């Protein structure tokens, strides 16, 4: 951990001197190195070896980054020796050379350490080379040899028995005054021995002692090895006993080396004796494994196996031993009979439960088909089961080689082995090699490996279907030779095929076959069910846009199916209807209805007759006479009459056919009566058909109509009852409903009915039907209407106290001023000053004086010393003037604010011009132009453009140069101008569809202004009309050269495209935006990123990342987002390793690099958890814990913990906290988690869980504040009270804000408040709370 | 539209509730064997055992979909599951 800190700090310091990017690259390399080091280190520490594949992977990885660091190179080089026991020595040396050269090519600079590492590798690999040449090469490269270099060079000479050479190097060492160490003496032992002079070799030990160096393990090993090489078992024994006597120990590791030397020298007979001295304990397993591997590598598999069996006593239940051995044997191409023998023995010794399947796997993994086939034959002999999927790796291998012969061979062998290959084998691994299943069939036949089976037939159908060749599917299905197959076997492929084909005829033909040919409906429910299910899944699998695009084809399809007399069960039919509805093609539902089982029995009345009252009447009478059911016709008649607004007649019909009336008819009637103010009849019908206690509810609109008419007729109690019923029956409340409520309340207010307003309002709010500020204002309006100012004022204050809203203030002020009621005026002013400060009170007064034309008083107010411009308030009033066309007032506003401190004059004049534009008043506009100059204001381009526009439109000369950005289209007063304004106006009113229609009508005749296109596109996108918007954009691009959308519209476009899955287009739009210097909005970027991640689209994510690199900060997107998204994409691609390898280093560097830091992984965790990707969650969990334990980075593990809490996995959370207790230190993360939880209803459980798990680490005041808030949001009175009781019992001080909101909540639900409500305003406590929270986190 | 698709997603998620996740599956076992094994706990609707198309081996984990939550309970009632000698 410290090392990394050091490594990252250093380059940053350098970076500040040089240019910035360098430090970036360097830190990057640091963490990469770190990651590689960790991986290799782990491998060495755990197993004492490195798998060759891992080494190569890291090597390629480092190559890819391009600039290898000195450490990395060293790391790779050092790994090419004894750490690769599975590789033969010459190959290891070759690998080392390859790395050496490649790294040099990439610009690595070698120093002494690298040369020494290479020497070590040479020694370990017993590589023959000339030490002098090596030295010369070092000198050439201007690298100084050091003591280690010389020691190793001596060892190199000694390996060859070249004492003379060794002496030469020794001379160098002496010249340089370098100490002679044990390593040198050990080498000399070997050197003398290998030169044939055993005497001198043995003598070295006493020479050492004389030189003051005690012989250690190295020396003894050297001596033992040379005895072993000579096969001198007696001396070995003597030495061992001697050492044991003098030193009292001998390492088992050394003994194992001696075993290897004996094996190599050809004296296996002495091994047993050495082996007996080794204590085979658990700790020794890695070393013994390496010995076994090395022995196998060198061809001594029997000796190796012998040693392996020594571990028999260490076996544990259910764990297989010797797998590594078998695997290595397979890798080294051991013959089958040898493998067989090992397998049998391992099985007999009960060391391995299934050795044969294991070596089969090894053979498959190593892509050794011949061996694999032999093993399978063996398995068959032994009576072990053989399964189709055993052949898959072989087939994949041949497929990659494009080796058809191999594939045929496998098929034949599997057949001979009696394995019937299944559908998956054919679809996924055989047919892929052929263009069609037909060519596959011919080829298989030609090569004698066509074995008919159900699996094969299913595969053929699937393959053809999935590739969209429906005609082939049809012929396969109708072929007499096709065996019975359940439709479910190929349903999904068939759906794919249907989707990629547009041939409705084939669709129908195939469906008919499935329906009528009993071969394909084997399961009991029969064809109706099966085909219904198929249709449902077909529609379900199509995206909204697909369904929309294929609407017409689907319609034809349904009709053709109908002609074929195909019906489907009602349940599936209604499922399909739901899907069609959600795909926004409700018209198709009608067509789908043709297929419903039920629809066959009922008659279908032609649509045209629907609204024809007289025809319906006749029909009704006829039916009645024929004694046929009349309910449907009756309902239609009632509806038709309602449409004609013929209440009288409708009621008559109702009375006449009362017994046959259905609910729908009554509902329509009620609505009709409401519209016609017939409150009596409406209520009668309602009470009769929809009594309060009946479960059937009317729809929202009809309830509202009832409330309205009841209110109008003063039947207040009834209205309140209806409202209560709405609540009880959970009638959905939309924005439109709220607007209706307001209309009803306001109407009552206008009538001056105080009680009606108050009671209805109270009911609506208390029942929680709706709560928006605007709903409260009739409470005040009603008093204004009655001109009861004291009451209005009281209502104002009450409203503020109850709902925290100030409403109708301006109107109250104006009225008071008009009436000249100074007392009350003072009272209001005081109230506002107290709650909002003097400034707000002054502005209100100012606007009121302006409004009432008392300009002198207004001036006095606005000239109050110290008053500053408040652009929001000024804008509000200016807009109000514009919309109510009060030119005089607006002019006064502009004039009076002339000397107001910090007032944006240009903005004020712009408002004035807007009103001029609205009125087409060019004279006034010109006067404004003069005023602007008079006041010496520099107008913005926007203002000038507007002014020019007004003058031009009214046929005036523009007295100044129009800024360049102006529209190219300057034709004034053309027809298009009128239409264009209409379009803009409609857009403003959110009526994009209407605007688009005008646009369509105008298209081709005239071109529009630049701005109008943008406005229209934006409005269309807001209403999710992507196609239309694109149409307009296209038109704009053809008419205006270089037309680009502005940032907001482009961002909306991106969001719409993402919603429709047009990701490629969205990427293109984003790129275009960035290229033209526009910034996308945060939601657009987030939507795009998350969707790309969902799709696992790494390529585009990477591209996105590059695009956003410099601007993430400016758009407020955190660096974590993209990192999380990329990791998620890897996960989606089932490549968890890549996800971790990508994310982990980022998190490590993120913890030290505050800019652009990737810290949290909560999004990633939430996603994988929500989608049940358990292995992913587990993997990231392990990573998070590793980061915590090894690097002290706690944020990821905190995120994991909180994810567990969110997913209500309390036990997981608990055990995590036990392992990584320090995560509780991430206080701010915990606090924001709670804050987030308290922002939406239904999340109290999360905070409860936190309180349960880590009570001692939470700030109780904060936690309980949020908990209370949660329950308040949930409207859960009981829990709110329980929490309050708990805090009291546990003596937890609740924050005043909590108490305040608690009091408000309790009052609202009509509960007593068991404490004194804090006296200050909400706002006051919110501020206080904010400060408190900052402190806590 | 957004609401409708959300409902579909929720529907899918709630259907998932009868899913169990099985890890550490030995390579010798295919979905057929898994289905057979888990059928003793209830009716197995579907067994999803992803294979790596690049190697021909499966990924050693799978999802089993049961018809009812009770089946899932049955599976969890057994402490450990041993398939072909390997604990899963």
TrEMBL record, chain B:
Q: Answer yes or no on keyword RNA-binding.
A: yes
What Pfam families does this protein map onto?
RRM_1
Name of this protein: SRA stem-loop-interacting RNA-binding protein, mitochondrial
- Cite a single GO MF annotation: RNA binding
- The question of whether RNA-binding is a record keyword is answered with yes
Q: Which UniProt keywords apply?
A: RNA-binding
Domain named RRM: residues = 18-88
Top-level division of the source organism's lineage = Eukaryota
């Amino acid at each position: 951990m410290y090392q990394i800190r050091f490594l990252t700090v250093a380059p940053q310091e350098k970076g500040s001197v040089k240019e910035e990017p360098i430090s970036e690259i360097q830190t990057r390399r640091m963490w990469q190195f770190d990651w590689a080091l960790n991986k290799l280190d782990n491998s060495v520490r755990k197993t004492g070896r490195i798998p060759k594949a891992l080494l190569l992977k890291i090597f390629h990885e480092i190559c890819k980054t391009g600039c290898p660091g000195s450490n990395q190179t060293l790391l790779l080089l050092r790994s090419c020796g004894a750490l690769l026991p599975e590789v033969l020595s010459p190959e290891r040396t070759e690998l080392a050379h390859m790395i050496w050269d490649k790294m040099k090519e990439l610009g690595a600079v070698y120093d002494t350490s690298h040369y020494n590492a290479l020497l070590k590798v040479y020694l370990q690999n017993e590589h023959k080379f000339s030490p002098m040449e090596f030295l010369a090469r070092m000198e050439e490269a201007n690298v100084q040899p050091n003591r280690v270099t010389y020691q190793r060079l001596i060892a190199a000479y000694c390996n060859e028995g070249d004492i003379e050479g060794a002496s030469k190097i020794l001379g160098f060492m002496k010249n340089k005054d370098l100490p002679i160490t044990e390593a040198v003496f050990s080498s000399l032992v070997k050197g003398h021995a290998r030169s044939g002079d055993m005497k001198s070799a043995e003598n070295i030990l006493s020479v050492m002692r004389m030189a003051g160096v005690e012989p250690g393990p190295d020396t003894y090993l050297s001596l033992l090895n040379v005895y072993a090489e000579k096969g001198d078992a007696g001396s070995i024994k003597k030495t061992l006993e001697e050492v044991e006597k003098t030193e009292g120990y001998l390492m088992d590791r050394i003994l194992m080396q001696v075993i290897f030397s004996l094996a190599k020298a050809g004296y296996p007979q002495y091994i047993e004796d050495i082996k007996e001295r080794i204590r085979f304990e658990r700790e020794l397993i890695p070393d013994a494994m390496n010995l076994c591997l090395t022995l196998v590598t060198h061809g001594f598999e029997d000796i190796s196996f012998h040693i392996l069996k020594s571990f028999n006593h260490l076996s544990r239940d259910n764990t297989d031993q010797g797998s590594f051995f078998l695997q290595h044997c397979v890798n080294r191409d051991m013959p089958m009979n040898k493998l067989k023998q090992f397998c049998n023995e391992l099985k007999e010794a009960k060391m391995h439960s299934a050795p044969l399947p294991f070596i089969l796997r090894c053979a498959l993994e190593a892509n050794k088909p011949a061996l694999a086939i032999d093993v399978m034959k063996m398995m068959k002999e032994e009576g072990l089961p053989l399964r189709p999927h055993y052949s898959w790796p072989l087939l994949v291998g041949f497929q990659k080689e494009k080796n058809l012969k191999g594939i045929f061979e496998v098929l034949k062998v599997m057949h001979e082995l009696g394995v019937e290959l299944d559908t998956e084998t054919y679809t996924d691994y055989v047919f892929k090699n052929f263009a069609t299943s037909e060519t596959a069939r011919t080829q298989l036949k030609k090569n004698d490996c066509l074995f008919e089976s159900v699996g094969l037939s299913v595969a053929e159908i699937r393959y053809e279907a999935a590739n969209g060749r429906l005609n082939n599917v049809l012929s396969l299905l109708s072929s007499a030779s096709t065996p019975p197959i359940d439709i479910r076997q190929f349903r999904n492929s068939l759906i794919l095929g249907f989707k990629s084909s547009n041939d409705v005829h084939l669709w129908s033909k195939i469906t008919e076959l499935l329906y009528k040919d009993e071969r394909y409906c084997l399961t009991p429910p029969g064809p109706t069910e099966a085909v219904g299910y198929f249709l449902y899944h077909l529609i379900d699998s199509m995206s909204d846009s697909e369904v929309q695009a294929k609407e017409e084809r689907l319609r034809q399809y349904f009709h053709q199916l109908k002609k074929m007399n195909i019906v489907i069960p009602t349940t599936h039919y209604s499922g399909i209807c739901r899907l069609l509805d959600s795909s926004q093609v409700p018209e198709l539902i009608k067509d789908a209805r043709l297929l419903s089982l039920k629809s066959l029995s009922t008659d279908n009345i032609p649509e045209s007759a629907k609204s024809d009252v007289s025809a319906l009447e006749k029909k009704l009478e006829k039916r009645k006479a024929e004694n046929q059911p009349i309910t449907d016709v009756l309902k239609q008649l009632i509806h038709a009459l309602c449409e004609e607004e013929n209440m009288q007649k409708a009621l008559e019909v109702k009375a006449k056919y009362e017994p046959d009336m259905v609910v729908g008819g009554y509902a329509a009637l009620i609505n009709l009566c409401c519209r016609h103010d017939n409150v009596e009849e409406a209520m009668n019908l309602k009470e009769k058909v929809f009594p309060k206690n009946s479960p059937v509810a009317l729809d929202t609109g009809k309830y509202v109509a009832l409330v309205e008419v009841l209110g109008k007729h003063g039947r207040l109690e009834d209205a309140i009852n209806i409202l209560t019923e709405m609540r009880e029956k959970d009638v959905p409340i939309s924005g439109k409903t709220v607007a209706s409520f307001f209309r009803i309340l306001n109407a009552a207010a206008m009538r001056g009915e105080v009680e009606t307003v108050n009671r209805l309002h109270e009911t609506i709010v208390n029942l929680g039907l709706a709560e928006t500020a605007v709903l409260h204002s009739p409470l005040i309006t009603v008093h204004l209407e009655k001109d009861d100012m004291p009451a209005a004022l009281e209502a104002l204050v009450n409203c503020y106290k109850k709902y925290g809203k100030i409403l109708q203030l301006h109107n109250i002020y104006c009225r008071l001023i008009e009436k000249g009621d100074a007392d009350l005026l003072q009272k209001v002013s005081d109230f506002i000053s107290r709650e909002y400060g003097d400034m707000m009170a002054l502005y209100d007064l100012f606007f009121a004086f302006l409004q009432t034309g008392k300009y002198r008083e207004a001036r006095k107010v606005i000239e109050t010393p110290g008053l500053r411009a408040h652009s929001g308030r000024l804008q509000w009033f200016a807009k109000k003037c514009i919309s109510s066309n009060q030119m005089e007032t607006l002019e006064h506003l502009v004039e009076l604010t002339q000397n107001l401190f910090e007032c944006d004059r240009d903005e004020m004049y712009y408002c004035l011009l807007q009103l001029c534009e609205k009125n087409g008043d060019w004279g006034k506009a010109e006067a404004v132009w003069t005023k602007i100059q008079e006041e010496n204001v520099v107008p913005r381009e926007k203002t000038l453009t507007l002014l020019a526009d007004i003058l031009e439109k009214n046929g005036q000369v523009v007295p100044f140069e129009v800024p360049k950005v102006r529209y190219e289209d300057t034709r004034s007063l053309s027809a298009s101008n009128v239409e264009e304004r209409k379009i803009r106006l409609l857009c403003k009113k959110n009526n994009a569809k209407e605007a688009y229609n005008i646009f369509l009508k105008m298209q081709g005749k005239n071109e529009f202004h630049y701005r109008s296109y943008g406005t229209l596109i934006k409005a269309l996108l807001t209403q999710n009309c992507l196609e239309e918007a694109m149409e307009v954009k296209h038109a704009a691009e053809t008419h205006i050269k270089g037309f680009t959308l502005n940032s907001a519209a482009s961002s909306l476009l991106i969001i719409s495209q993402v919603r429709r899955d047009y990701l490629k287009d969205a990427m293109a739009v984003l790129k275009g935006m960035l290229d033209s210097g526009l910034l996308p909005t945060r939601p657009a970027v987030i939507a795009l990123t998350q969707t790309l991640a969902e799709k696992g689209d790494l390529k585009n994510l990477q591209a996105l990342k590059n695009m956003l690199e410099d601007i993430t900060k400016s758009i407020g997107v955190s660096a974590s987002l993209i990192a999380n998204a990329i990791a998620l994409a890897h996960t989606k691609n089932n490549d968890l390793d890549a996800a971790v390898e990508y994310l982990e280093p980022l998190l490590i560097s993120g913890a030290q690099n505050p800019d652009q830091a990737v810290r949290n992984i909560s999004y990633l965790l939430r996603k994988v958890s929500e989608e049940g990707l358990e292995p992913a969650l587990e993997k990231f969990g392990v990573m998070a814990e590793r980061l915590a334990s090894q690097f002290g980075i706690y944020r990821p593990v905190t995120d994991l913990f909180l994810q567990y809490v969110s997913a209500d996995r309390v036990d997981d959370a608990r055990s995590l906290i036990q392992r990584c207790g320090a995560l509780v230190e991430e206080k701010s993360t915990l606090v924001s988690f709670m804050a987030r939880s308290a922002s939406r209803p239904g999340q109290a459980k999360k905070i409860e869980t936190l309180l349960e798990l880590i009570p001692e680490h939470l700030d109780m005041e904060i936690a309980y504040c949020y908990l209370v808030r949660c329950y308040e949001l949930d409207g859960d009175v009981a829990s709110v009270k329980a929490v309050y009781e708990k805090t009291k019992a546990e003596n937890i001080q609740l924050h005043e804000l909590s108490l305040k909101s608690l009091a408000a909540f309790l009052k609202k639900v009509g509960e007593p408040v068991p404490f004194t409500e804090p006296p200050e305003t909400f706002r006051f406590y919110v501020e206080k709370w904010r400060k408190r929270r900052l402190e806590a986190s | 539209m957004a609401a409708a698709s959300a409902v579909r997603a929720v529907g899918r998620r709630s259907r998932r509730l009868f899913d169990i996740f099985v890890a550490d599956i030995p390579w010798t076992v295919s979905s057929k064997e898994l289905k057979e094994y888990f059928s003793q706990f209830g009716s197995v609707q579907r067994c999803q055992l992803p294979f790596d198309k690049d190697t021909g081996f499966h990924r050693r984990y799978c999802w089993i979909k049961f018809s009812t939550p009770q089946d899932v309970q049955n599976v969890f009632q057994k402490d450990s599951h041993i398939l072909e000698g390997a604990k899963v």
